[in-house]
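sanity check this record:

:::
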Amino acid sequence: MKLAGNVGHQNAILAGMLEAAPDVDCVITIDADLQDDISAVDAMLDAFAGGSEIVYGVRADRASDSLFKRATASIYYKLMSKLGIKTIPQHGGFRLVGAAALAALSRYPERNVFLRGIFPSMGFRHESVFYSRLGRKAGRTKYPLSKMLSFAWQGITSFSSQPLRWVSVMGLVVMALSLLYGLYTIRMHFLGVTVPGWSTLAAGMFFLGAVQLLSIAVVGEYIAKIYVEVKGRPRYIREATSWQQERGKPQDDAAE
């Protein structure tokens, strides 16, 4: 299959998986830079035969990465966890996906695709296969820092409404502080240590600023609900069909 144009890394992988889905029991995706060790494929297939619907290729270490990349990757996975986003640490695009998971994937109509978050959120039985990433033998990475940051931000905004709720908390905190500061300015006014008009101006400015933040926070809560609704993600996913429930079970003597 050849795409008519550059639709982005995640959409290209999604297109390939959904194109193959009707004719296969599972698909395996792997980056074209040949740094993912294909010897791990056998272990992936064994895990799939044993009943795992999704098998993640997970890097055993990041020794081949720079100190900066190791540090930023660690911060990123911790941040995703704090935001309540399910991801598999040290997992990239090397994975096996079974037919049931592919069928479920076709029910995700969103345009901002973040597969590293979608698959763990499905809830299927999964397993991780650890491997050592190989060195790059030729070419240069197509993912510079700018693209990595863009990809990280897409992952956050595609799966978490927490940044909107942070505004709510900020609004409440600032409003509480403004009320305290308002009481302080009134006290200073009665003590006669303020310039005429300063107390009213200061208290009013901080109070109105807090009200504005709180109002934006309320709007943000509704936007968060809209954000979830417009994605149109399935309310539930059926875990297995009858043939998948039998996969991995030893056959009886009669069947042999």
